[in-house]
Amino acid sequence: MGAAIKDYFAELADGVGGAWNRFWFRAVDPFSTSVLRIASGLMALLYLCSFNGELTRWFGPQGLLPSNNVRQLTGAASSASEGAGTVFRFSYFYWLEQPVELRIAHVAGLLVVVLFTAGAFTRITSILSVVVIAAYVHRAPMIAGHLEPVLIMVMFYLCIAPSGACLSIDRWRAARREDHDPLQQAAPSVAANIAVRLIQVHLAGFYIIMALSKLAGFTWWTGESMWWLIAHSESRLVDLTSLHEYLHVVNAWTHAVVLFELVFPVLIWNRLARPLLLAVSVVMWGTLALVTGLLAFCAMMVIAGLAFVPPAGLRAIGCRRSANLPAEPRPAESP
Questions:
Q1: Is residue 335 part of a domain?
Q2: Does the pLDDT of residue 56 top 90, yes or no?
């Protein structure tokens, strides 16, 4: 009896440990992290460009958000040892207030993110890009929106992965140096798998938080929330107020959003349910973008969902060649 119990727990430990190791530490094709690098880099560029022409207005000494006022409002410390009761939120904009200084820093930040998006010196520019985006968020957290948490989350985890292994200047330079095809599949990477898994887990956590926050709101229970979003004329991109004659549709839409956000973090791990959930997520975030006007945030949620698409699937969508096979020859033309 004792031997049977011992064998059971040994088998259980091997099974759980093996599944854990396969989930986190299996080497995978880094193509997914390269696609995420390009997509998140473009969103980061869009975010930075939103500050073009507005730097002095926000960050200047006579601007709307002087550095001293922001420090007092947020409890931000300029150094980690500034004192108890303060929070360390690094931003080089705390020391740059003159218009020329702000413009130089802004252009330098744009250059860093462009290099990261293009996959140049990715190991360095990935880290610097996170520092750049965080500098804007930490300097003015009161004007940050829904986009920044998701954007920084994805970019931060890409610092772990070899996100320049494919579709990048780094890959092209390495191919020229080693005389091989830059479209050839890159070597599998454990770091790429860890980064993708962290994005997946974190994204599932975002869905849980969004669902629970909606369940705390009365109008989401009554099915009226989508109508309030539709009626908010200042932000919407499409006028859907004609749906007031079909309130049952609006109510169903409201409950469907909550249901999806509750189901997604549970069923997304199922291989068969995953394609359906990802397809529905594109529809859901696309319609919410039209109603709320939060185009960047909704696009970023779809981009983060790409972490659940296997590298072979992304290659099939975006490349002529598959993960392992050369391009199929064109059929011979009939005489």
A1: no
A2: no
